[in-house]
Amino acid sequence: MKFNFNSLKRKKTGIVFITIGVTALICVILFLIFGSKLLLNPNREFEPEQISDTSTPLQGPNNSITIPGFETLTIPAGKTSVSAYLYNPEENICYFEISILLTDTNTEIYKSKLVSPGQKLYQIELNQALKKGTYDAVVHYSTYALSDYADMNGANVPFTLIVE
Q: Which residues contact 126 (CB under 8 A, 6 or more apart)?
């Protein structure tokens, strides 16, 4: 009986290529499912599932505006570039301008540019670094019409700012 080494070598090579292909496919699928969350928010501390969402509708003349809120936000001391999860819900009919103010001094520590419906902010730049401590704060939402940027309703949502 004659044994063909070329045939055995081809089978092994085929198995190796199939294994590499299946591994690559699994990696692509896992990246599509989990990768975008890791790239957009590497700290994973402020994902929407981990923040107690206290969204409330703000009644406008013909429609309502959903205002998101949260009970606490934790940021590092001495830093101005911090992770946060601020957003304008997709169903809203307006732009948001989001500000964070310290209640005691009424100091604005952050103000966004216009945030479109469905847009999310994962990293924000504070106006000043804060010392360690717990601060009473407010997220202020200014709202503007999509068509002509006309002022609409606004809202203040209190929360506790924890600086570690």
A: 75, 79, 80, 81, 82, 100, 109, 110
Rounded to a whole number, what is the largest CA-CA distance in the chain? 93
CATH topology of domain 48-163: Immunoglobulin-like (2.60.40)
Mean pLDDT of 24-38: 63
- For 41-89, the pLDDT digits (tens) are 444 343 433 333 444 445 444 468 889 988 999 999 999 999 999 999 9
The mean per-residue pLDDT over the stretch 95-116 comes to: 96
Q: Name the residue with tokens 């009424």.
A: 106
